[in-house]
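SAMPLE LOG
Freezer: B-3
Tube label: C17
Construct: single chain, 124 aa
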Amino acid sequence: QVPLMESGGGSVQVGGSLKLSCITSGSTYEVMAWFRQAPGKEREGVAAIYPTGVFTYYSDAVEGRFTISHDGAKNTMYLQMTSLKSEDTAMYYCAAGSMWSVRGGLKAAHYDYWGQGTQVTVSS
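STRUCTURE (predicted):
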């Protein structure tokens, strides 16, 4: 059983919006996050949420444009993306772990479980 599964990716024009979802197959995690990876680039953490404490973190690149949220009743995490830019084009992954650590940005090594990704393409 896949522990995390993303959906909601697609193609959108610059300035548009998309909402990604990540369902956790009934499991609960301490910390959840969204990462993205563009071709030829390293995986980049964009947002994280500590559901039980309702803490959130955003990278500078998405602050003010993206909103991360979590619905415990549905075991689902969301990433609402607005004012999309061409540089937001990437494969987006949801991740889950047990340690809240945002100093210096999100680190992929801190997350134990990963989804398979959903592609977001922003074109002008």
